[in-house]
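Note to self: keep these together.
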Amino acid sequence: MPRQFAELVDEDNLKPIPQELVMQERIEVGYQAFVSDGGEEFGAVRQVSPNGWPELVIYVENSGDFVVPLDAVDAVHSGKVIFNCGKLKPRLRKAIGQAHDAEKPGA
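Structure:
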């Protein structure tokens, strides 16, 4: 079931997180995945908050599933999840770079 993140609380300070810092659109299974520095879609959301954890499972083309923390999400809109590349683990960034290799002639 999709989750809304409008009532998040900063647990260190026990106060609500400002609305401008909270995603207003739900992330849903099947949304396309992109990185904020542009480029093509590299995969899709497979799971949202598995086991209640603040993370996503993202399928990356030609590489499989990766667990990504929600704080790596820059934006959500129009069925797309935009990730901050600087917050992604090196192994995932490498997989994203190779997501469309099988589509290129000679690859």
